[in-house]
Amino acid sequence: MTRLIAPALGPVSRREFLRTAFWTAGAAGTLGLAGCGSSDSSGDGGVPGESRFAGIGPLGAPDENGLRLPAGFSSRVIAVSGQPVSGSLNLWHVFPDGGATFPTPDGGWVYTSNSEFPLLGGVGAVKFDAQGGIVDSYRILNFTSANCAGGKTPWGTWLSCEETDSGRVHECDPQKSGNGTARPVLGIFKHEAVAVDPERRQLFLTEDTGDGRFYRVVPTAADWPPGAERPALQEGRLQVLRFSELGASQYPPEGFDLSRPRAVIWEDAVDPGEAQSGVRSRLGDAAPGTLFKGGEGLWYFKGLVYFSTKGDNRIWCYDTRARTLEAIYDFNKATGEDKILSGVDNLTVSEHGDVLVAEDGGDMQICVILPNRRVLPLLQVTNADGVPDTDSEITGPAFSPDGRRLYFSAQRSGRLGRAGSGITFEVTLPFSACPGGVCP
Hints:
The chain has a single domain (about 15-430), classed as 6 Propeller (Neuraminidase), CATH 2.120.10. About 5% of the residues lie in helices and about 35% in strands. It has helices spanning about 15, 25-30, 275-285; strands spanning about 65-70, 75-80, 95-105, 110-115, 125-130, 135-140, 145-150, 160, 170, 180, 190-195, 200-205, 215-220, 235-245, 260-270, 295-300, 305-310, 315-320, 325-330, 345-350, 355-360, 365-370, 375-380, 395-400, 405-410, 425-430. The protein starts with 12 loop residues before the first helix and ends in a 12-residue tail after the last strand.
């Protein structure tokens, strides 16, 4: 993902503060946090107090893998860039980025991980048995460029995104080695991530550039017929979101209140078969859509679409039923000790609606925004000196299907001290983040 400069954080006390603080509804409003949308679309995930993360304690000292974790959590390293993954001859890729997990028929699962390396990016995978043992590793996509994030589909494939001006999305089978299939219908731009709304049969996409857009693709009725498990991803309309109160190609101005739901409309992208950076350059201020500064992580959950923008350190929530968008976290609205989450990047969501956000820089933490809008540090990555590994970034957070393990990478780990290095971790939780059985 493209690195953008985040506001500097102050002393460690800013992180420590939220270890014990409990935000009231009034305090949350002051900090730029709010419930998402006006529809009752969050289900049980929107009920305060149900989160399994609400009771986690403070972060301890770095463990043997350089992770600061709450009591009861443990970690292991599952892959290191340039080294063969246990049980296989596959060398783990450099610059590991976005990832997801997929169940296997034998009760195990696969973790997929992009490589954000120019020209030789692609996707690697690690296969686990039902007890969590590593049994295989292989490539599911090769010879693509700067594969940043992507998205898992409800039909069991991985959509891998290229973060280049001519970038495309490739659909991959995580269960076996292969080379994927390009899906040009999902647009040509600096892709970051994809999320699928199976109920309304549409896909959402973020764009990692300072004048980017928030996209959706609506497959044609023939491409994704009612009742079909999946679309063919051959035909559809590429559209961009615009706040209905703003004109084309505008960034939300000062005074435009984003802490409450704002109505949006979807406009057709111009020349969707062309690189959108070139289209915008040609159209200038007439280019459709609202500007979003550095679109990053993206996740669909029970009618809500969460995404992050690193250029302004916001976490957004789009309500697919109400067709409204709001910022549920805004670093620039936070003050003093409440500024603990910056460099917002990849994200994932638990069964109860906890939004886990990985930092690119900042304090090198994964933080949790709980359903009641408390914000807590979940873990922190340190370097060989035991301090936050701020020259790296955290990527690819994803729960195992049963919600008992969390996977992620330190893309350029300072613990290894070499260019292109990366470490992919597994953290075992003392509970399931998805007690209903399968994580979203």
